[in-house]
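[audit] Reproducing an earlier prediction to check determinism. Same input, same settings, fresh worker. If the tokens differ from the archived copy the diff job will pick it up downstream; this log only records the rerun itself.
[audit] input (333 residues):
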Amino acid sequence: MLRSGLLGVTLLSMGVSCTPSRAATAAGAPPGEVWLRADEVTAAGIAGVPVEEHNVDDVLVASGRISFNEERVAHVSSPVSGRVVRIDGALGQHVKRGQVLALITSPDLGDATSALAKAGADLIATEHAFQRAKLLREGGGASDATVELAEDAWRIARAEVERAQEKVALFHAGRGVTESYPLTSPIEGNILARTVTPGFEVQGTYSGGTLPELFTVGDLDDVWVFADIYETDLARVHAGQRVDVSVVGTGKPFQGTVDYVANMLDPQTRTARLRCSIHNPDHRLEPEMYGTVRVAVAPVQALAVPRGALLHLAGQALVFVEKGAAPDGRMRL
């Protein structure tokens, strides 16, 4: 249905020419009109409908950008500093969670495991000293202050063990002293990007690095599309509405639904961010592609005619309006 300001009767289909028929011309039909006999109307399959108010579907159009579904992608970096000595993950390879992507030789691992061993030894020593102090106090050979100092040292040593254990767990290191760190995938998916090669020097995040992304693991079966909606249109857009996304070179539009509308505006553009989820089983949509987003917003009441009543000629959309009967009884259009 299309909006129209026409009043009268429109024709659903036209199987005749827009120029007056020879019979109409001979009868003196005025310019711009077509007069048709009843048999011509029947042969052309012409039907008329009144122009009435209808609920006309409205579509909001905005520019969109394809992005990863951040719930199904992992950006893998290294917590340790060192040198990459082996690459196990290839671009496009499907990997399981915990599968090794690369092996990094790092002194950080040796330091962490050694610190854990030392912290464990200190804990044992301070615990023994604490127990001895308590026994001596029972026999009158130590004061309460001495026992308290021994207990404080034991608690500090226990906290140091816990800190060293957390650091070793962060590095996925075992109990033995080693300098080989296996960089693993945190999720199951395909390797979508890789920025590391053998011999690459890595600055670890634990050492104050800049968080370089070494691998991107995820899948493109579902992607996100972001679009900016102007302030004047925000009241018409809400979660659950149908969305069509068109990207040049990908064929037919992709369909999805709105799942998020930002509740604040960008102060510079005065727009709000809209996000929709698109199923992408063929991986034709790729991150950072640009496209056109069409959101099916609430319908509006308007005078409308069926889409089939339109006739497209010379770049214009035309409709025929019945003007009543001609003097000889033919239909005037």
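[audit] rerun output stored. Observation attached for the diff report: The longest helix spans residues 107-138.
[audit] end
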